[in-house]
Each structure stands twice: as structure tokens, then as C-alpha cells.
Specification:
Layout lengths: L2 H20 L3 E3 L8 E7 L8 E7 L3 E4 L12 E3 L2 E5 L2 E5 L2 E6 L2 E7 L1 E7 L3 E7 L2 E7 L13 E3 L1 E2 L6 E9 L5 E4 L7 E4 L4 E12 L5 E13 L3 E10 L1 E2 L22 E3 L5 E9 L8 E7 L7 E2 L4 E10 L1
Parallel strand pairs: 2-4, 19-23
Antiparallel strand pairs: 1-26, 2-3, 5-12, 6-7, 8-9, 9-26, 10-11, 12-13, 12-24, 14-24, 15-20, 15-26, 16-17, 16-25, 18-19, 18-24, 19-21, 22-23
């Protein structure tokens, strides 16, 4: 084989491989083009300044005025870290996910930022908040900062086996290797280590016991993190790997099973929000019952992040 063929053949194989990958049939997730948003107008308590706060939800275009709890409308499967909170009678709104224009389209903009709260004009509190978008529901009003996962229903029923999660993406990542922990109580702490934005898709097979406990086997896993800025990329593909992946070369510890403090929550048949205990890996040919999709500007714990991390995401779909 001459030198020309040695150079040409790998490029040709790469071309056909890329062409096959781009030829996926897409199943759009409802409202996953982020063209429609609910605008909510919240009035914060006078004790913390009484400001008018606009927070957004993904759903049919409408405006909701007043301090009222929100539940997904119009069949939208999306929720976010945007919250209406009422803690000890004090109303606060937080917005880290909002509509933005990019590439001529309306997209979702997620950002990590510091929320500043001044109480009676005297006490200043800073809270680190991050932008998160997920399939599920948020239970409002938020009444405490404890156990944040217990206030979210994660995932939706789903029984298909896609090859990938496909979406458009841009990440703006500050070039710093520190994070800040700031809960609003006590001083801020600077932590070493680079924060990362992330996107994941998890397929589970769930079941419930007679006591209302929910368990799951992990059917499929796709999870990636972004430590550097990423230019606007259309049709980015996150492959979904089926079965036990712990022995695979691409496996990372953060792709592992979620239980204990890492467990997400779901409503059981008794109407109670309970943790979903992932207790094992499903067979590679198993059919799921639920899918979880999340995009976030952090990969760490609540109230820890790097100000300025921003993610733009659009056109989220399953690829077959």
C-alpha cells in the first residue's frame, strides 16, 4: 500500500464514521428547543429589600404575576434551579437559567453567580448559585436549604433505548482553578480545584417495594464534563453506554451509581417524594422505565461554584 493510500484511508474511514454518527434519527424532547418560556414576577420580602424579581420556567409562553408556587405547565417536562423560596416567612427569588439569543435562535442560558442578600440594610449574605436544567419537577415554595435533592423530582417515564443525547452547546469557562463555597451563613471559603460544567443522560429501570421505597438498576449512562470553554457546537452527541460500564476504558468515578447522599428523588405510589436507590447495573439489553437528563454549570455540591461559568444549550433530543 503506497503512502498516499496510507494517508487517505484513515481520513476516509473517519469521514464515513462521522457521517454515520451524524445520520442519527432525532426524537426531540418536548420544549427542548427552548423557544418558549414562562415569565414569573416575584416580589421579595421587604425585609430583604422588596425587589421585583423575574424568574423563568420552560413552558408555554405566558406571564405569572405574584408569589405563587409553580408546577410544570403545558406538558413541559423541564425544571430548573430557578426558584421561588419562602423560608421562615421571607420570600426570595433566584434565577440562574434564562432565555438568550445565540446563532439567531432562542436558547437556554445557564450561569453560576453570587446572589447578594441584604437583611434590614445591615446584614449582607452572599449565596453561590448555579444554573441547572433537568427533566423533572421542582417542589415550590422552597422552605429550606437542607437536602436540595429532596425538593426535586428527577426524571420522567421513558422506555426507549437511544444511542445518544444530541444537543447544541457552548461553554464559557473562566480560566481559574478555584471554587468558592458560600451558603450565606458564615464567611466565604475558597477551595482549590477547577469546577466543570456537565451534561448527563441516565436510563434507569425502577421498581417500588410494599413500603414505598424506590429502587433502580442503571440501564444506560452518558455523562461528560467540560473543564474548558467550548465554542458554539451544533449537533453535539453524548453517547449512551448500556449495562455495567465500570470496566470500560472511558469509565470515570462520577459515572457511577447514585445512592445515599447522591440519590435523586421521585414520587412513589403513595404520593411521597422519596430517594431512588440505584443498587446495581442492569443487563446491557434491558429496557428502561425512566430517563434522567441534566445540564449544569457545576459538577460539585450545592453552594459551591466558580462565578462566571456559563453554558448555552439548545435543541435537546434523543438520537437513534
Amino acid at each position: 500500500m503506497n503512502r498516499f493510500l496510507l494517508r487517505f484511508l484513515p481520513a476516509t474511514l473517519l469521514f464515513f464514521s462521522a457521517s454515520a454518527a451524524s445520520a442519527l434519527t432525532l426524537e426531540k424532547i418536548k420544549f427542548g428547543d427552548f423557544s418558549n418560556w414562562v415569565t414569573r414576577e416575584i416580589t421579595e420580602s421587604k425585609l430583604i429589600g422588596g425587589a421585583k424579581k423575574t424568574i423563568y420556567a420552560i413552558g408555554p409562553e405566558k406571564t405569572i404575576r405574584g408569589n405563587v408556587a409553580y408546577s410544570n405547565s403545558g406538558g413541559s417536562p423541564w425544571a430548573s434551579s430557578n426558584v421561588y423560596a419562602k423560608v421562615s416567612g421571607i420570600v426570595k427569588g433566584s434565577n440562574t437559567v434564562s432565555p438568550a439569543m445565540l446563532g439567531g435562535n432562542r436558547v437556554a442560558k445557564l450561569e453560576t453567580k453570587m446572589e447578594h442578600v441584604k437583611v434590614l440594610g445591615m446584614i449582607n449574605m452572599d449565596v453561590m448559585v448555579t444554573g441547572t436544567l433537568f427533566l423533572g419537577r421542582l417542589v415550590e415554595p422552597i422552605s429550606s436549604t437542607k437536602s436540595p435533592y429532596s425538593k426535586m423530582e428527577m426524571g420522567m417515564p421513558y422506555q426507549k433505548r437511544p444511542k445518544a443525547l444530541v444537543y447544541d452547546l457552548r461553554v464559557d469557562m473562566p480560566n481559574v482553578n478555584t471554587r468558592v463555597k458560600s451558603t450565606g451563613f458564615g464567611s466565604k471559603k475558597t477551595l482549590q480545584g477547577r469546577d466543570q460544567a456537565e451534561v448527563y443522560v441516565l436510563l434507569q429501570k425502577r421498581w417500588e417495594d410494599e413500603k414505598g421505597n424506590i429502587y433502580a438498576h442503571r440501564v444506560g449512562t452518558g455523562r461528560e464534563r467540560f473543564a474548558k470553554s467550548v465554542a458554539w457546537t451544533k449537533g453535539h452527541q453524548l453517547p449512551i453506554h448500556y449495562g455495567d460500564i465500570t470496566g470500560k476504558s472511558f469509565y470515570k468515578p462520577y459515572m457511577g451509581l447514585l445512592d445515599g447522599q447522591k440519590a435523586y428523588y421521585a414520587y412513589n405510589s403513595k404520593g411521597k417524594l422519596v430517594p431512588v436507590h440505584e443498587i446495581g447495573w442492569a443487563d446491557a439489553d434491558e429496557t428502561p422505565t425512566h430517563v434522567l437528563v441534566m445540564a449544569s454549570t457545576t459538577c460539585g455540591e450545592a453552594f459551591i461554584g466558580t462565578e462566571g461559568i456559563t453554558m448555552y444549550i439548545d435543541n435537546v433530543a434523543f438520537g437513534f
